[in-house]
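Page 47, continued from p. 46.
Same chain as before, 418 aa.
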Amino acid sequence: MHISLAQRLALGGALPRNLRRETGPVRIGFLAPFSGPFAPWGGPGLKGCRIWADWVNEEGGMKVGSSRRPVEIIARDAAISPEQTIIYAREQLATGVHIILALGGDSLAPALPLLMARRALVTTLLPFDLGPAAPSLIAPVDLHPLFVVTSAEWLARTRPGLRRVALCSQQDLMGLPALATYRAAFLAAGMQIVRELRYDGLAHDAPALVAAMLESGAEALCWCGSEPHMILALTEAAFQAGFDGPMLACTGDGYPQMVARTSVRFMENFIFHFPDFDDPALADTAFFYRSPASFFAAYQARSPGQWSAVSWEYAATLDLWHAAVEIAGSADPASVLPAMKRGQQMLHVFGPARWYGERLFGINNALIGQWPVVTIRGGVARIVGFGSVLNWLIQHEDLLLREMAREGLALPQLSPPA
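Result:
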């Protein structure tokens, strides 16, 4: 598998000296929420990208063909209003960005038809954005929420006597796909769903939700794709209610606060999917200069205690994109996208992966491979195993499609690009 320039710098130490130095920057657009309730899915990722850009620029810039060019990030808040998001998208296109990093979902939807009409290369962390009307929209890193199937498999394997699970989810484009995917994953693992609750993302009562879930006799509780502040509230409510079984969630952002507000032993039942990058299981990864622990340390130094699920994801996207730019010899999106999808395979941050998604999304624009299962050990997040999302989909895709349909989730209803 190809290793990007950013990764090779750690091994070779410097850029080739015979490259021409050019002043024109390679511009990276960043269009994600930096305010409002979805700010935790944007701001931490921008901080990670700035570390990535600083590292590349400190070594002389990004290799594009026979030249090297500085990297410049143009970030805009996609949470102000749909109209403002479209204005920002037009602005980024006018400045000649070579790629636009986005959270996706509701924050990207207003601008997506425009971006696709202009054939912009856009990335999303939400693969349910994908569809045939969005041919240059890709999900190269995050598989939200498809990765959750690995924790359901892991739980069924390690706790074979556990059968009854209750779920709750907020009703938005982060929550409902997670609800459908967790439901499919538990059913595939032979577990019984005894309660399923939905709540408004702006109006909720965590203790009441947990009490209703426990009334069903649930042996495991699942917070699905709830936002970080809600996961904290639900977890604390389960602790106060005396629950002592597994709790599952997509993310565990701010887990030290959860440990502090519950107990070390209680949190050993918490199962999620986003590790700290000083985890020994990631020591040999090819990303982040072959030293994810160094990236983690740099992030912690700049933003102490703020590491989250998205702190590394947008930066990992840039690593993949950079590798394709080197192969293409150009930062032109029309050349880079085919380079990224060459042979329908690419190295994902957690190992080899394949471009996939024809039946789910109508297009093979999601890079899918394996994903970690993370629990808390001694108050610290640790990877306890990896599961293959791709293999699960090959076996259970029909079940997932059925559960998606139950939530009204279909291919994006975008107008075809002009």
